[in-house]
Amino acid sequence: MEIFERILGIILPVFIIIALGYGYARLRGNAVRADMLSVNRVSMGVLCPLLIFTALAAKDFDLAHNGMLILAGALISIGSGVLAWPIARAFGYDVRSFVPPMMYNNCGNMGLPLAVLAFGASSLGSAVALFMACNLVYFSLGIKIIESGRSDGVHSSKWKFLANPMMIAMMIGTAFAAAHVPLPGPLFQAMKMLGDACIPLMLFSLGVRMMDVNFRSWHIGLVGAAVCPLAGLIVAWLLDQVLGLTVEQRGQMYLFASLPPAVFCFMMAEQYKQEPDKVASIVLLGNLAALVFVPLGLWMGLPG
Question: What is the rounded CA–CA span in Å between residue 180 and residue 248?
């Protein structure tokens, strides 16, 4: 009973903030989209990169110590796509719509706050390491899957993903972590305060974004909502048998594996005109299903 109370205490604050964002969007209607546009621009361009950089550049973050965790995150993302591919074929789904969301879970908006609540503020660096691994896989392999076989000329530069502010923050933060370069205390604290503001903002924005998705393609949404976390947990369990992870890293890995598809997948589907209504249903139903699968992942990963 104690572990279930702990799990409830971890996930409830996250979903309460998401619900508040959704309620605010319902109350304000279309006006909220204009309000959130500037907030999201600042969040994704400034606050989130600072969150990532300060987590990696922190004195207590050990890049070598988290090497296995980064490997686990990459393998879970790739493995989830491998398991999802034959399922997409069996149900007659377009793999370009179904497989990439299975590879890119909500390790940003939802994963980072959950990791802090579950394992404490000192665990943020490890959660960012998993976030980094997932982003590297999605923006390289995942985007290539979306673009494969397209005849409409919608393609991106091979290295365009490296220009993303979050990717830049990851690369600079990784360099600071590898070189053990200390930042002046006041500067680091100011950057960290700004970065920490990103966590509740991301959750609130996720709730607002839920206004844009629907249940029209409910069948693929239900399948995707189950396949994403289940495939991740299967791969995580297999990795748990062979990787020498610490107790906390093991918990982080299972939490990461249980997360639903990222809202960003819907945004990319819109950009590439790759059945965005179906991807929207996968994202919406997946995030609702997180109420079941995230506790399952925490139960598998948390020590009794």
Answer: 23
